[in-house]
Amino acid sequence: MPFMKGRFPLRRTQKYLESSNLVLKERVKVFTVNYNVSGNHHQGARDFVYWNIPQIQYKNPGVQVATFKNMTPSPFIRMFCENGEEILVDVDSKSKTDICDHIKKIICKTDATLEQEALEKKSLDNPANFGWGCDRQCICEIVGQVPCPSVVPLPKVMRGKYKWGQTFD
Amino acid sequence: MNISRLGNECLHISRYWYPAGDTAASILGSQSVRWKKPRWIPRSKSKEFFVPKRCKIPEEEVIELTRLFNKYRTEMKSVRLHLERENRRTSATSELASQQAAEEEEEHLRLMEYNIQENKRIAALREKRLQEQYETDLARVIASKEKMEKLELAEEQEALRIIAETQELVKTFIKREDLENAIEEAIENPKDYNFALDAEGQILKGQNSLSKDVQEDKEVLSSRQ
């Protein structure tokens, strides 16, 4: 299999995107990063945008994620919530990991919450179910059950027309 | 699992089963009624006084059916009430949910406060950095200004030196009136630029002079003196 195209295509792999735990709370609707392409105090913000923005968008498909370049002397992250609240995070001279930790602390779901949600989701789709939207459509597909009467006719004992006869009153 | 084989090449296994009718828009296989009697036409003669027979259910069966019905209804009712109670307990307007919401709000406010404090700390660091940068820039500018001034001074000195030299040279220029005299002088006193150097640096003027011939007035190259 050939190499993936682009610089650091690792950022596009599912494994990398899944590995992040930056799941924003439901109240956040827009996530914005302002930074410059040059300047040492912007390096942390640049790294954050390069490595972590794809992860954030993957984990929060309902959130609008935007970046603005070369509009500010000092980098910052701004989040807009449902009730119009603005959360401003100053990231001047911070490293990428610092930014990630800070964001995780103030506005992301905790690991405990994420675990609980994952557990709930797992219990909802029970693999033993059958029917519409499940692995198997009918119980006749399951090994050990009565086969489909369209393929193998049921024994006469189980058929109504033989049990009760033809009755016309 | 729905397994479909495509040309014996690959085995596609689709994980979820959805009936074809749900994905397609049209309802295939529906039948329409060929004939229905119009509503203004009265019932036919053979059917107009027809009274349907009331079927007689045996008593034992009635008892059994009632028992089964009661059992079923009790079970369904119990399930329904249980779910209702659960819903009331955990719904968005219930006490539990509002309590949770209040807790979340409190937590959120606390985190926002923390964020503001963090912002202040970063702002202080930034101020310090900018101040340091300003000072270094200022120092750099002053140093460069001084350097420029020095260079300018040096250039001025150089220019003045050149002017003085030139002024000296100007005195040796031949004026138009003296031109003929100067030409005559030049013709009468030819200048010989040929000279040789021997190993000691002695200048031997003329084209063919030898070192052993020159005894008096030894002129030695200035660099050797």
From TrEMBL, chain A:
GO cellular component: mitochondrion; ribonucleoprotein complex; ribosome
Keywords on record: Mitochondrion, Ribonucleoprotein, Ribosomal protein
Pfam families from the UniProt entry: L51_S25_CI-B8 (PF05047)
Subcellular location: Mitochondrion
GO molecular-function terms, A-Z: structural constituent of ribosome
Superkingdom, taxonomy of origin: Eukaryota
InterPro entries (alphabetical): Ribosomal_mL43/mS25/NADH_DH, Ribosomal_mS25/mL61, Thioredoxin-like_sf
SUPFAM superfamilies, per the entry: Thioredoxin-like (SSF52833)
Hydrolase as UniProt keyword: no
Gene3D superfamilies: Glutaredoxin (3.40.30.10)
Domain Ribosomal protein/NADH dehydrogenase: 37-110
Entry keyword annotation includes Ribonucleoprotein: yes
UniProt family annotation: Belongs to the mitochondrion-specific ribosomal protein mS25 family.
Protein name, entry field: Small ribosomal subunit protein mS25
Gene that this sequence comes from: MRPS25
UniProtKB/TrEMBL annotation, chain B:
Keywords annotated in UniProt: Mitochondrion, Ribonucleoprotein, Ribosomal protein, Transit peptide
Predominant place of localization: mitochondrion
Family affiliation: Belongs to the mitochondrion-specific ribosomal protein mS26 family.
InterPro entries named in the record: Ribosomal_mS26
Intracellular or extracellular location(s): Mitochondrion
Native source organism of the sequence: Halocaridina rubra
The gene coding this protein: mRpS26
Organism phylogeny: Eukaryota, Metazoa, Ecdysozoa, Arthropoda, Crustacea
Listed name of the protein: Small ribosomal subunit protein mS26
GO-annotated cellular components: mitochondrial small ribosomal subunit
